[in-house]
Amino acid sequence: MPPSGWWGQLTEQGLTSLRTATPYSNNAGITSALAATPSTDGAYDISTSPIAITGATVIATFENATFGTSESIWIRDGFGAIRTYMVDPGRQLYPGDRVNLSVTELTRYNGGVEITGGTVTFVSANNGVFIEDLTGTAVSYQNNELEVVRLYGELVASQGLCGGNRTCWDFQHGGQTVTLRTSGDSGWNQASLAVGDCVEIVSPVYVFGTTTQIDASLRDSWVRTY
After folding, report:
1. What is the per-residue DSSP string for 40-77?
2. Fewest CB atoms within 10 A around its CB: which of 3, 43, 135, 208?
3. What pTM value is reported for the model?
């Protein structure tokens, strides 16, 4: 078992105190966006009837050097989670920020749902970030879509390269096995991972086709060895 107290991006950014084990109870409207996205891959313009998401909590972010802000944010309420992709929020956002969105485009990409058009409005900071420890529990995109989860266990096999310099692994945690995707970017700790390593993950759950992935490849601090 790894040392306690590490929470990935929260630890990296000095926000560990925001982690909470208490699930959200609010309905921000995320399920409306998920339900409105057709099952076939593609982009869908809903600008004539935008979907409002109100009071969702940011649970993870990925920065964009061109924007100088957050290229992607993962948000959650008491009923679901979703991410944005290439929607400029006009400012740097952090886990624990509360936001409102007006969604004008939804995209299904390789089976996953993304908000790819609309506006993001900052509401408040330093709200609790719900991250559930699911070590030993079967994790699936169907049940944990775009949630940020904590897992710890062992890399038991390499699946080889899975897109650019990304590597996919068979990751075993508490008797369960799920695919972990990591980056080979130069200078990243992830680039030195090997079969047999014990790793701890605090990362979003994604999907590629029909395969559930814990995709830690966008942020080095989403996975570490112990």
Report:
1. SSEEEE-TTSPEEEEEEEEEEEEEETTTTEEEEEEEE-
2. 3
3. 0.95
